[in-house]
Amino acid sequence: MTISHLIRGESSKVLLVLMAGVFMAALDTAIVGPAIPAIKASFGIGDRSIIWIYNIYILMYMIGMPLMARLSDVYGRRMVYILDIVLFAAGSVIVILTPSFSGLLLGRAVQGFGAGGIFPVAVAFVADAFPPEKMGRVLGAMSSIFGIAYIVGPVMGGFLLPFSWKLLFLVNLPAAAAVIVLSFKALPGTFQPKFKPFDWRGLVVLAAAVTSLTYGVNSIDTQKFVSSLTSDAIWPFLLAFLILAPIFWRIEKGIENPMIRTELFESRQMALAAILALSAGLVQSGTVFIPAMAVASLGMKDYTASLMMMPLVLAMVLGSNMVGRLLDSYGPRTVVIVGGVVLSAGMACLGILASSPWLFLISCLICGIGFSGLAGAPLSYIVLSESPAGEKATSQGAISLYASTGMMIGGALFGAVAASRGGGVAGYQAAYLSISIIALAMGAMGMGLRKKEKFS
Q1: Same structural domain, 376 and 452
Q2: Which tens digits make up the pLDDT trace of 393-446?
Q3: Domain of residue 234, residue span
């Protein structure tokens, strides 16, 4: 069954608008990579500074996720979804017009803050607009959008970069305008405003915790992991996160209208979803190093090594749609167990058989199939089935926050494992074999999931 069979009538308009917004945000993430050399040359900055184009975006994305998700549950999905698109477009305008690198970072921060709410609010809209028996297929179609964006992004970047790197951000403006207009026409107003006291304490503590974690993790020198952790430039920030995280949790447990309703995670299914999301982020961080692995093990050039990611991305696009149908038929338990086993096998193959180009490509293909069974649609399916109607976006935002945290920590751990084996091929092999064990553990955790979810 194709996407066109799923989207008919009024629901088709809703899904198309949601997928357009998700695609726009995902495309921006995929398209920034090719622009890095041109941005460095334009502002005359080094590698240490340019990385903050990603870091500031990730930081504000992680803060925006739970905030926007909570606002959509309280004040209505359409209003917050449109607000997210407006913020994303405003950030793009700042990036285009700024004459300074600090202005560029400000624009990226505004972009990330808006983008953080797009996916969790879109997922909650899916729960409002589609019947439970189609939920898996729709979520699978939406998850495949990320893979499509990572195919289109580099191609679009290659076409526009010869003219100006700012064109990569300019394309966001007509896209955002179209999504905003269509949102007013197609998306229903889901809730009447409920003017409850907002959880400002929780927001401030969460923002401080996420900022501390982001700065601390991104300052780690993976070549000197242990000594780096104990340096004065890093350990205070990691310690601050460890202190602030339980304080945030305690604040959320003690108020009437929290940003994240902690009692939802007392459910075994939601607790497992949170652990799976964190683990999926850890594992997914390993995909960032696939081009570097291709350079080290196959002797490829930097500009061609990224093409080795294509089988993984294509497998995720096709696998996400297949997984969606399997979720509707069998539930998340079978999908997560099989996904964990398949991903474990793919990562093990990368760690053992990566010396052959064809085996490298086949390993990436297997990894892509496995990822589609562990991240994205399966986790959203569990969250939507376990959350009450007024908490679906909030719960999705919390799960996305776990996944983003896992990705950030996973990048540092991957580099640390690789460095511990001296780097190069041996280092990458050790890191991918370690990820293989985590993926297998995720499959085992799937045994605790229900065979079939019941939607509220």
Answers
A1: yes
A2: 888 888 888 888 888 888 888 888 888 777 788 888 888 999 999 999 999 999
A3: 200-256
